[in-house]
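hey can u check if this looks right to u? its 119 residues, i copy pasted from the old doc so theres a chance i mangled smth
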Amino acid sequence: MLVVLVGFVAGCGSSSEQARQEAKNKAQQIKKDAKQKVEAKKQQAKEKVDVKKQELKKKVDDLEKKVNDLRKEVTELHKKINAQEQKEQDQQINQLKMALKELKKKVETQGQQGQKEKK
């Protein structure tokens, strides 16, 4: 009977050892699964970040293009304004030249009339 009891205790010991090993294996598997899930989530987050980065880069590029287009437009408007101002200045100069010619004619006419009166 003692042999059976020793055998039973020995059996329980190996059963306990087996249960401990199974628990250890299960814990390792859970840990492994958790790591895989974390890595998968990490990868998904990285992909989302990359997508957002690309979207932001595209928006920045689009805005830079718009800014450059607006700068070109402003430059063209400045050129047009300068051309218009130059045109107006040229017209004013021409008007002043014509007025000066008329004044010279009047002065000459008055000078000629004054000379006729002196004669």
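The two ends are 173 Å apart (CA to CA).
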